Amino acid sequence: MHFSIPETEVRAGDNGSTYVAYNIHVNGVLHCRVRYSQLLGLHEQLRKEYGNNVIPAFPPKKIFTLTPAEVEQRREQLEKYMQAVRQDPGLGASETFNSFLRKAQQETQQIPTEEVHLEVYLSNGQKVKVSILTSDQTEDVLEAVASKLDLPDDLVGYFSLFLIREGKDGGCTFVRKLQEFELPYVSVTSLKNPEYRIVLRKSYWDSAYDNDVMDNRVGLNLLYAQTVSDIEKGWILVNKDQHRQLKSLQEKGSKKEFIHLAQTLKYYGYIKFDPCITDFPEKGCHVIVSAGNNELNFHVKLPNDRIKEGSFKVTRMRCWRVTSSQVPVVNGTANGSGKCEVKLELAFEYLMSKDRLQWVTITSPQAIMMSICLQSMVDELMVKKSGGSIKKMLKKRHNGSLRRSDSQQPVKSPPLLDSPDPNREPIVKLSSKLTSVTLRGISTSNSANDLSGNNFHGNYAFEGIGDDDL
């Protein structure tokens, strides 16, 4: 998660006086608006719980009214403080920090605590309407949806809630995975745009975990619906013969066999991002980035209109970071309109060859979502490397907090697959490779080409993870 305080504003208080509000942005979007005194209260509470040695420095109080320059200095200091707290594994995951952000989000949007109905969508477009409180956090809403679908408690952690934006062409843009410090109802309603919706999807990358999910009827139906949806969107590459086989299995109702066949197809389990810009292999190249199979896959359009494809393995990334900057919005004049928009960039340092590291930058509004994907892939690899199970990554959920609904909702099967869209073929049928980056990552093999066992040190990523929160 990328925390920033890009701006301040002067607001009127209850007694007619004014105060400076600090706008906290998460992933480039306003999350809450807080006063210095509120952040000082958070700091004092964290200091009592964790001690002075753990808590980062907090900007001191001032006796006199701050000058504009001092307000700007305090803004920068508070931004660094919030980033430092969030980056610390203990502080950033603490209930004190997360509950502060949830309360501040609710107060900023001026949404009272009350019972409401929230619509959560499945991959096949089916709506699941759950009764929640506006103050319910992400985990509460996820459990309410699981309860409505009759998904077993031990499978809830295999799924997550995502905020997406539906496109007019039927496509969708992944905005972010909903986090523990936000209130899903407040997050989606505050956008005041019907194109935004909350969707339930699986939250792991390794298809081997599909078997755990498919052992349950509801889990199987959810995974099947997502697979059909990803094929229809063109995220999974399917030729005519494979499409015929899939449709035959679908007509027979053979959902497990359908998923097993889909697992063998290119880009199964990937998330596809909107077209954006990269500086690799040249500056200003248009690229479509997909995340999956422990890699970022690039479909790059070069200046000469040639299309190339390449993959960057997370096991060869030494580190990565997300940066944000304010860019003036040009309004047809030389000076622009005076307004600014947030520019997000994901940059990662990649081991191109034995002796050469190179920074690759992606400029995209979805840069933080890409970073979250990278981090979760590395988390899974770390669990595997330690010989553990994915269940160790899943937060323990207390059965007492589950909302068991009287009426449970079945997952409907999606309609039969349509024929492959010929308009997608120029995008997915790409054969030209970026040979400099299609390098092997961690393997179970002990051959000389296994990067985990030679001097290439292909698992650099395990040493330098976490810079995306800087």
From TrEMBL:
Transmembrane helix as UniProt keyword: no
Organism domain of life: Eukaryota
GO molecular function: phosphatidylinositol binding
Entry keywords, A to Z: Cytoplasm, Cytoplasmic vesicle, Endosome, Lipid-binding, Membrane, Protein transport, Transport
PROSITE patterns hit by this protein: PX, RA
Domain Ras-associating, residue spans: 114-205
GO cellular component: cytoplasmic vesicle membrane; early endosome
Domain (PX) ranges: 1-108
SUPFAM superfamilies assigned: PX domain
Membrane-topology descriptor: Peripheral membrane protein
UniProt subcellular location: Cytoplasmic vesicle membrane; Early endosome
Pfam families in UniProt: PX (PF00787), SNX17-27-31_F1_FERM (PF21273), SNX17-31_F2_FERM (PF21271), SNX17_FERM_C (PF18116)
The keyword Cytoplasm belongs to this UniProt entry's keyword annotation: yes
GO BP terms: protein transport; signal transduction; vesicle-mediated transport
Region Disordered: start-end pairs: 394-427
Chief location bin: membrane
PANTHER family the record matches: SORTING NEXIN 17 AND 27 (PTHR12431), SORTING NEXIN-17 (PTHR12431:SF16)
Family: Belongs to the sorting nexin family.
Purpose of the protein: Critical regulator of endosomal recycling of numerous surface proteins, including integrins, signaling receptor and channels. Binds to NPxY sequences in the cytoplasmic tails of target cargos. Associates with retriever and CCC complexes to prevent lysosomal degradation and promote cell surface recycling of numerous cargos such as integrins ITGB1, ITGB5 and their associated alpha subunits. Also required for maintenance of normal cell surface levels of APP and LRP1. Interacts with membranes containing phosphatidylinositol 3-phosphate (PtdIns(3P)).
UniProt protein name: Sorting nexin-17
Organism: Lepisosteus oculatus
Lineage: Eukaryota, Metazoa, Chordata, Craniata, Vertebrata
